[in-house]
Amino acid sequence: MEECPVEAIILDEEEGFAVVDEEECVDCGACEETCTSEAIEVE
Ligand code: SF4
Predict the structure, then answer these.
(1) What pLDDT was estimated at residue 37?
(2) 21 in a domain, yes or no?
(3) pLDDT by residue (tens digit) across 5-16?
(4) Is 30 a residue whose pLDDT tops 70?
(5) Does residue 31 lie in a domain region?
(6) Which atom of ligand 1 is nearest to the CA of 40?
(7) Is residue 1, in this structure, part of any structural domain at all?
(8) How far is the CA of 37 from the centre of ligand 1 (A)?
(9) Burial of 12 (0-12, 13-18, 19+ CB in 10 A)
(10) How many other CB atoms are there within 10 angstroms of residue 26's CB atom?
């Protein structure tokens, strides 16, 4: 997903929603708006 500078956001194609790879996520907040709108869940 483009919003994430470290590409920690992964679209789970089986489930059809986006998840965040906690090990990759740097809490930069760039996806904050996207996270809520895309209903991202932390894996
Ligand atoms: S907060 Fe985490 S998941 Fe969101 S854009 Fe930043 S690094 Fe990526």
Answers:
(1) 61
(2) yes
(3) 888 888 888 888
(4) yes
(5) yes
(6) 3
(7) no
(8) 14
(9) exposed
(10) 10
Q: Which domain holds residue 22?
A: 9-42
* 23/14 Cα distance (integer angstroms): 21
Residue 3 lies in a domain: no
Instruction: Quote the ligand 1 centre to 27 CA distance (angstroms).
Output: 5
How many domains, the chain? 1
Shortest-distance Cα residue to atom 5 of ligand 1: 4
- Measured in angstroms, how far is the CA atom of residue 18 from the centroid of ligand 1? 12
Structure tokens at 9: 């956001």
pLDDT confidence band for 3 (50 / 70 / 90): confident
pTM exceeds cut of 0.90 = no
